[in-house]
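Students often ask why inverse folding is considered easier than folding. One informal answer: many sequences map to the same fold, so there is more than one right answer. In these notes we will look at a single instance of the problem. The structure comes first.
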């Protein structure tokens, strides 16, 4: 089943909201946005370690669901990049009610099970797409390493 998916602008805006919010919260550091929106990492920076951030803006309230999800493929890629560069991978998600959550991804695969979820095969662009089963990990918001208001 194919459907028309005109979400490129909406997805791009939501991702930019996530990046901007993360940078504003962590303004004491220098963050490098990745120029290619299809990169595995959205932002990178360094303190005593190299940090690799996947940032998302969600167009819902943080109270709408008790979890946020991360595709297993994205998680594996983030962990690989962090490991190859002696760093750590993080997932940052912000919601329209102003609440944001940061997850250290180091031990996520050990703590949470992988589930399959029907999702758009491709969620970027103005083209037909179909629903496929993807492997995802649901991260409970209460378990975030850092919470921001």
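Output (designed amino acids):
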């Amino acid at each position: 089943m194919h459907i028309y998916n005109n979400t490129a602008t909406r997805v791009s805006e939501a991702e930019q909201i996530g990046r901007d919010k993360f940078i504003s919260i962590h303004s004491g550091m220098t963050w490098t946005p990745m120029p290619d929106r299809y990169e595995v990492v959205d932002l990178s920076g360094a303190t005593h370690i190299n940090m690799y951030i996947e940032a998302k803006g969600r167009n819902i309230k943080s109270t709408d669901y008790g979890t946020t999800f991360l595709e297993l493929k994205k998680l594996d890629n983030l962990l690989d990049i962090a490991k190859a560069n002696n760093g750590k991978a993080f997932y940052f998600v912000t919601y329209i009610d102003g609440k944001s959550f940061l997850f250290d991804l180091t031990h996520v695969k050990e703590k949470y099970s992988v589930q399959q979820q029907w999702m758009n095969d491709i969620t970027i662009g103005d083209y037909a797409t179909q629903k496929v089963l993807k492997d995802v990990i649901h991260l409970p918001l209460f378990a975030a390493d850092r919470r921001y208001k």
